[in-house]
Design brief:
alpha+beta; Putative iron-regulated membrane protein; four-stranded antiparallel sheet; transmembrane; elongated; membrane; transmembrane helix; 19% strand; PepSY-ass_TM; 6 helices
Amino acid sequence: MKKIRFTPLFFRRIHKWVGLILGVQFLLWALSGSMMALLDQEKVGGHSAQASHQHALPTGDYIAPAKLALDGPVLGIALRYLAARPVYEVRSATGTRLIDATSGAPVRVDEQVARDIATTMNEAPIRKATLLAGPNLEAREHEGAMWRLDFADAENSSAYISADTGRFLVMRGDTWRTWDFFWMLHNMDYVHRASFNHPLIIFVAFGTLWLSGTGFYLLFKSFSRADVRWMRRRRKPAVKVNVG
């Protein structure tokens, strides 16, 4: 078996290929950072902010929470509006239930309820309503089943409504989607688009460190005595010759 010699030529060859591979990622990193900086911050941030539409509950007789037909221990109860309708949001170990605050009947967040909630967030016509069993990439910060309502507006906006609580989760548009694509390239998380601690970015970080170290080594080895000869000439003292 031929013995590997760790010569400058050996490191130069590896340095060249590692530099090429990491250079592609550096190019994507610079490109994605520039594009994210150029996008309209209001359109990007505005679609990721959670809207809040609060209404004062009308006066009237509501069923006392103690009289609700509940199974098991309750973790919390909240009285709120759901599409212009007062409901109790009951949280327990098994999940969240919605109960009509005046009749005590169970409330289900169906497509019509989801549409009513979404129209309070966007006045554009709704093109399509889809029930998702779980979050997609656009709503990855949230959990559980949810409704996706697509609007016919300039941004091709999509509102996400929780199928369990009927709460508005998030609004996404084309500007945010463009930003999210470049965000994926920037943090190198090509699957979840959320983490800075995944194996790929750690590999690139150590690869960059190795590239810097070998680059400095090769730079040092590339110098010869001829490169520093001019310095020695400047330091050489002048010799005076006296004649006669």
